[in-house]
Amino acid sequence: MKGYLILDFSIKDFARFKEYIDKIPAFIKKHGGRYIVQGVEAQVIEGNWQPERVVVLEFPSTEIAKEFLADPEAQPLFSIRHEATDSKLILVEGCF
Hints:
Strand order of the largest sheet: 2-3-1-4
CATH class: Alpha Beta
Structural class: alpha+beta
Shape: globular
CATH topology: Alpha-Beta Plaits
Distance between the termini: 6 Å
Radius of gyration: 13 Å
CATH architecture: 2-Layer Sandwich
Strand content: 25-35%
Number of domains: 1
Number of strands: 4
Helix content: 25-40%
Low-confidence stretches: none
Number of helices: 3
Mean pLDDT: 97
């Protein structure tokens, strides 16, 4: 089953975050992932969830998504995201 990483974030320091934006797609591709949703503003339909920007990444499996998150070469980029944004990240398994 496919694995999906869902990121809800707000940018605190765009100049710093730009490096992440420029470089992370290569790591996503390296692990067989692809963008389903790429940093768009969300429209809240129900509830009190107020995401500023949302990213949805699809990977061949949840295990491969975890390998992406654990990639040693990507860790400096994840540090940039942690410093330059307020973010929440979840991993879910797809139905098919």
